[in-house]
Amino acid sequence: MALAGTSVHGVALPVVAVQVLGASPGQVSLLAAAATAPAFFFALPAGVVGDRYPKRPVMVGTDLAAAAVVAAVPVCWAAGVLSVPVLYTVALLLGTLTVLHQAASIAILPELVDRAQMHQANARIASAFSLADTAGAYGGTFVVGLVGAVRALWLDSLSYLVSAWCAWRIRPSAVRRERAGRPVRMLAGIREGLSYVMRDPIQRPMVLSLVCHAYADGIVVTYFAYTLLKRLGADSTGLGLVMGVTAVGGLVGAALATRLVDRYGPARVILAGLLAYAICAAPLLIARPGPVWLGVIALAGAVRTAAAVAAGTTQRSIRQQLCPPELQSRAQQTSVWLVTGLRTAAALTAGGLAAAFSVHTALLVGTLLHLVPAGLLWASPIRRMTAMPAPSPSKDGPRVP
Asked: May I ask the CATH class of domain 197-388?
């Protein structure tokens, strides 16, 4: 519910800025930056918070706070004091609360399920995330068109209240929660999390592969819609259909992830997923105008998303199974911080390549860079993993098959 709410206000806030307040393009750009900046600045502190405090109260508190922040927009509108700076403040607060909530909600999983069920649980969560993200985006667009952007935010606020109620019903394992909730100072906690990820022979290549994947994907995504609209002559309906079909791939990948790992092993699923992601980017490079090529791109996008979800849930499950309980949030947020920080760099790289050469060159470079993550994992101990990590009979933690 919280993710669906995030998708709804992601649609509604820019509409309020443009249609209600008459914001300029520069102001809309700043609003988008205000919404995404907290992911970089607060990812690491959020990891410490997630490890320092019980995660369920963090999830409930951030949902309740987000409900109040979202409701401030229609309240200010009714009072006649709504302005663009108010939207900046709302976007910043919502971005910060989202970072805190996700740091706790992702890392709470090892407190809820046994290690043997971790991958299946992550696959189900990925399926729910894909469904909520898609439903939130399309549903948000529909609701905004039906009742208006300002009134739609009342429903957005309600979704956060429902999410808070759902989070309150979660009952983590008392033993696991006690192990995960050890007090730690902020700066020392951040250093400990970074050090753990960068020194661990399994965590390090996985996180670095995610970072490289995000950088390559950021280059391609920068000009994905531009290429469809400009070079391939698609209209907004065609773009929407491509995005919709692509999103369905996430549900397929989540449904197949555990079966593929059981049959072929985690290493093969991760490596094949990363390679499939790179290969399925090729149609965008050679496509020509016409509905047939749009269909090919949409189908390739669905396969890419399925491969990404299957590989991503497998990586996350391995990392959670191997990570000590007291470092779950910080390990997760270290990768979030690195990935978020490279998104801006990827967009700037794409712009530089397009300015110096062409948009097609930027897409080509991004597609080729998608091969790097698979190379990193092939050169790491992950290549030898034939099964998911299993609990050790001793108290030393999980072992790597």
From this structure: mainly alpha
197-388 has the same fold as 2-183: yes
Q: What is the pLDDT of residues 25-49, one digit of tens each?
A: 678 767 877 877 888 888 888 888 8
Q: Is 207 exposed, middle or buried (0-12, 13-18, 19+ CB in 10 A)?
A: buried
**CA distances for 16 relative to 74, 88, 89, 156, 169, angstroms:** 10, 12, 14, 14, 34
Separation CA 159–CA 3 (nearest Å): 9
Tell me the per-residue pLDDT of 198-212, one tens digit each, with 9 for 90 and over: 898 888 999 999 889
Tokens encoding 287: 């496509």
pTM comes to 0.74
Domain boundaries, the chain: 2-183, 197-388
Q: Thinking of the domain 2-183, which architecture would CATH place it in?
A: Up-down Bundle (1.20)
Model confidence pLDDT, tens digit, residues 340-357: 877 778 878 888 888 889
Sorted by sequence, the CB contacts under 8 Å of residue 269 that are 6+ apart come out as 257, 260, 261, 310, 311, 314
